[in-house]
Amino acid sequence: MQYATIHAKTIEYNIQGSSKGEHVILIHGSIFADMYLPLMSQPILADNYSMVIYHRQGLAGISHNLSVTTRLEDDESDF
């Protein structure tokens, strides 16, 4: 995972696929961001798109905090 600080929040993200392809951001709706990893390794996608997944604030890795409740609306400032 790579890390970025946006609006004083640290998020984790991973980029895979073609560096020349269109960018696709895969946003998970729950705690399972890594569910996209098998999809990102599919040749039809990996050869044609630059795919980005990220762990929503408070749900995984360095930002993991079981006491934090987040909604997608709360994460709008990540972009």
What does this structure look like?
A hairpin with a 2-residue loop joins strand 1 (2-6) and strand 2 (9-17). The protein has 79 residues and is mainly β. Helix content is 10%, strand content 33%. The protein contains two helices and four strands; from the N terminus they run E-E-E-H-H-E. The chain has a four-stranded mixed sheet, with no helix packed on it. The two termini are 18 Å apart.
What attributes does this structure have?
79 residues, mainly beta, single chain, globular
User: What is the number of helices?
Assistant: 2
Mean pLDDT: 76
Work out the helicity level: 10-25%
Counting DSSP E segments of at least 2 residues, the number of strands comes to 4
| Helix-strand topology string | EEEHHE
